Amino acid sequence: MTVWQADFYKRPLRNLEGKVLWELFICNIIGELVYQALSPQSDVNVEWLVTQLQVATAKTGFPDAIQVFRPQSLTLFASAGQKLGIKVEATRRTLALKQKLQERALQYPQENNYSGENYHPIALDKPPPLPLSENLWGDRWRFAAIGAGDMEAAFCDRAIPIFQMPEEFLPLNLSLPSTVAIPGVVIDGGRKSMVLARWLAEVQPVALNYIPGAPDGLILEAGLVDRWVVATFEDREVAAAARIYQERQEWSQGLHFLLVQPDDSGMTYTGFWLLKSGD
């Protein structure tokens, strides 16, 4: 399967007429350059992008998918992909692309058309976290943990309607010792268990992080830049458990899980997501 990772956005560059330049940058999942091109901001549109993608595919063939992490360019790629019959996937996990963009940013100051403006190649504006709708609230929630060596056996053979355990996140593939505790959050959804799980599948969870404050909170990172308040709390014992939860993520390379179930009987699971912070 051939996957490209692509970005198309303004850069700290200007042409001879002083117009801001946008750069199309495409690499594969191991960071090899596939194609790049510059366009004045005034010429940026779907037709221009389609033409450039046609040039790129003429050289290398069509990819099975193009991964995009930047919301501002997603619409352009989605429209161009539809015209060319290429699947476009919105995902934060474009690690090779983000690394190449950071390397590319170091080159701009050396170019004659460098504008000198502040530029952060992979930074995205994130909206404030939104509260969950009342129709999604479960009965209760709690912190949990499971040994890295037990992760697959505990969940892979279960009939879980909504299940996401990416192969690249498996503890074995991250070279995690089997004794490392993988932290997680378990939500007993009761009658709303399936409604909550389906909503989570729709928003595409990325990470679930503890954020200290007044009150403390659990913030769900989802989609490209979306954020949701899963829970808030002021109880000292819960806050202590939350700190342990976040500390365990440091030992697990950011790996953690979210489990939704109807109740705490352990008989039935509704949804499971293996997540990873820091990507």
From TrEMBL:
Pfam families given in the database record: Tab2-like_C, Tab2-like_N
Residue ranges occupied by any RNA-binding protein Tab2-like N-terminal domain in the UniProt entry: 3-104
Molecular function terms from GO: RNA binding
Superkingdom: Bacteria
Domain RNA-binding protein Tab2/Atab2 C-terminal: residue ranges: 120-276
UniProt name for this protein: Tab2/Atab2 family RNA-binding protein
Organism: Limnofasciculus baicalensis BBK-W-15
Native organism taxonomy: Bacteria, Bacillati, Cyanobacteriota, Cyanophyceae, Coleofasciculales
